[in-house]
Design brief:
It is built from four helices and seven strands. The chain is an alpha/beta fold. The longest helix is centred in the last third of the chain and has 20 residues. It is globular.
Length: about 190
């Protein structure tokens, strides 16, 4: 399918409209499509790794990314930048309050050396867990990257999820969802 044929109002050979101003639509609003499950997998060195999510460990944003995905690079960079400018660092409200976990496919589907190149360059600065787990992709019904799920609340649940467009969009979606859930508990 040619991109200029998706929208018939775009003449052949003309540049189609930009996607930059589009807003992602979460896959659900207030009705989770997946339940919370702990994640088991390995780190990029092959060591077993478990991410506990079912015990109510606060807020966690899961970022489902691959090194093969062109749209994932900026998200990887933002997530692994542990300084104030990182994925959630731009928000005083979220910094230090939300745990960030990057989930890539298993080493059989994702080159661990490519993950290591990204993780090891920022190893001393990022407070981000990176787990390689295709089972997590299945558990959270993720069909392609970049995708995110926010886990949290008094009883751990998937609060919101959707396609990632930009680091800023993830930050905004997370802040909005946390505020909404917090307002439920205040009412």
């Amino acid at each position: 399918m040619r991109l200029d044929r998706v929208n018939e109002s775009v003449p052949p050979g003309a540049t189609p409209p930009s996607f930059a101003r589009l807003s992602p639509i979460p896959t659900f609003r207030d009705h989770p499509t997946s339940s919370v499950a702990d994640i088991t997998g390995v780190d990029h060195r092959g060591s077993p790794l478990r991410v506990d999510l079912t015990e109510g460990s606060g807020w966690t944003v899961l970022l489902f990314l691959t090194t093969k995905c062109a749209g994932c690079r900026d998200i990887f960079d933002a997530a692994l930048n542990g300084a104030r400018g990182g994925l959630l660092g731009a928000s005083e409200e979220l910094y230090g309050r939300v745990r960030v976990v990057v989930v890539t496919p298993d080493p059989s589907e994702q080159d661990p050396r490519a993950v290591a190149r990204l993780v090891d360059r920022d190893a001393t600065t990022h407070p981000v867990t990176v787990v390689m787990s295709s089972a997590a992709w299945r558990s959270y019904s993720v069909f392609g990257p970049p995708f995110f799920s926010l886990i949290g609340g008094a009883i751990p649940r998937v609060v919101t999820e959707g396609v990632v467009v930009s680091p800023e969009q993830v930050c905004d979606s997370v802040a909005t969802a946390i505020e909404k859930v917090s307002s439920w508990t205040r009412s």
